[in-house]
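Quick one: structure for this chain?
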Amino acid sequence: MIKRRLGFAGILLAGLILVLYLTGGGKIFGRLGVSRCEKLWKESEEVMVEGEVYQKTRKEEKLILYLKKIQIREMENGKAVADERLLVYLDEKGNGPEIGQRILVKGNVGFFDPAANPGNFDQKNYYKQQNIQAVLWKGKVLEKQVKKTSFREKLWQFRNRTADEICREMGKRRGGILCAVLLGDSFYTEEDVKKRSPKFWVWRDNALWKIHELTLYFEKIGPMLKENIPELLLCPDMSQWGYFLNIYGRTQQDIDNEFSDLWDTAMRGIDIYALAPYVDSCHFITVPVTPDGYPDSYVVSCQHSMMRVMNQGKPFIGGIYWGRYIYNDLYALLSPSEIIGSMTACGIDGYTCYGMNGLDDGGVMNRMDTHFLDSLRMANEWFSQVICLRKGEKKKEIAILFPSEMAHLEPYEVGNNKIRRLDLLGWYKLCCDLGYQVDVISNHEIEKGTLAEYKVLIVPSNDCYFAVDHAAMEKEIRSWVCKGGVLLHGPRDLLAENCFGIQGEECEKKPYHYGKTIIAQGEAFCRYQDGKEIASYVDHGGCCVAKYEKLELAQKMNTKYRPGMGAVYSFGIQIGASYAAKNIPHVPYEQGNKEMYPIIQSGTTLVKDILYHYMTPVSGICERGIETGVFENGMVVVNHRSIPYVLPEKYKIEKYQYSFHAVQNGNGILAGHEAVWVSNDTTGDDYGENKIK
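Got it. Here's what it folds into:
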């Protein structure tokens, strides 16, 4: 019998949910945010659970066990709760059950609380990221499997004994900090970031040290290698650095993968932007999957934008993962044609690939389907021709500031990091869909004065910005805005506060109004009490989007107003996260919208109106799902949609990936998930059947 309270539905909805569950639609509950544990149990209920200990830790006087592969006793013959995990709190002073041991434990059920207000620590989401759905309080071990002590258990016991000795000699506070350094203490939490706790600073110092040492290594090793081999092209494969924008590995179907944290950029101690001066080409592998687990070729484009910035004036070697990505077949939805099209639009001179040999997910090339292989072959042939036609570098219009501190210092498990990473991706997708050429730059480029090449700078979410001194970058940004630059930033942005004195007031999640009522997503919301109102919250309690310019901006910057000064747009919502998110938000009754559907999510209109006020895209194209790469003599157009796209008439020459499309579809029709090179340059090469008169 399912024990559950109906929280937001009437009898009709309850009946529908029951029917779906009984007919095998249990997975729908996951999408509604309800775990199996919540369906089976109620708060404080005493239960017996069997499971395998995969991790344990000690907190004060409690021993905390992490259980996986759980089964519930006394409920339908011990039916398994698949893919879900539990915490168990034991009142034990010893080592308790061993890691790898299967146990039977009794305790009282508890569930995790969501954030009480935006910006607060979201306990429920934090544990959900680890697939942990509930906790057992007052746990008591009833049975233990007889098992040989594992290496991981011996290592845990050694670490625990060492930590006890250190804390006994140095005291809990100082000893705890030293243990974090020497023994690799667990990740800090979102609260540690907000409170800037010693635990966070220890992690920060360690990460920055790793970055410094690796950068120093390449600074020294490069000249030494070239002294012996002058013709050497130094292009280190940083491999999985690009996984900053990808799904946290432990949430994949392979839930027993204990090494997936190695994919996290915050674990690796690499700043490729900083390495750029010391290598001949900056390179890493990209994967077309978003932080919330959806296939998306814009991820590849965004990360190749980073590589393009790193490699300005140098050979630009891209990187792509052709495997299926941990049992989820990405290329059943995407095509090699559009992926290679995106990389070409970003300006690559060549690319390397990984996942051809099926090391981890069955991506063996000779076993891939015919559609995949045909698409890959045609795209490679097209690319080899296009790079010979393309002239000059890709145009520059908009810069997005890469959240370096978050990437380097904040592991995926900390807080709702998925949303913050989506904010960067969403801003990139939005600007591409508006037709602009977008570069993802870092503080290193800004400090060198490269902002002069852009009209607009966008600052996405970065909750770790405070951890590094950015006085030099902030000085450059202030100077750039004074000369006419336009900056856009999100809620609670410390860069905007440091540069311009702009502070928003934290507020609860609310819809905003811009022509129509729009529901924003994200984890951070704030309102502004000054500036010119561009968009308002529905309660009219302050600006959702405020514009600062002219005298008001000069006053905030404590400088004299000068003609031609730019502007700052302050957003109280995470526009990028809203734009990139795939989930549909529920509309609470208390927000005044009595019907749940249809709902309106963040679109392009607000940002389009702001950006088009200052410049129209050089591509001349503004279509959702259509990416462009504009060069001196033409551009690459990539159709990320499933439906054909009609090209602008001004282009006289078209070179398709599938050459027969020019004949089959007629002039100017780009099929879904494919790319085309278009040019007005009619001199030079003969395009054969692709030449359009």
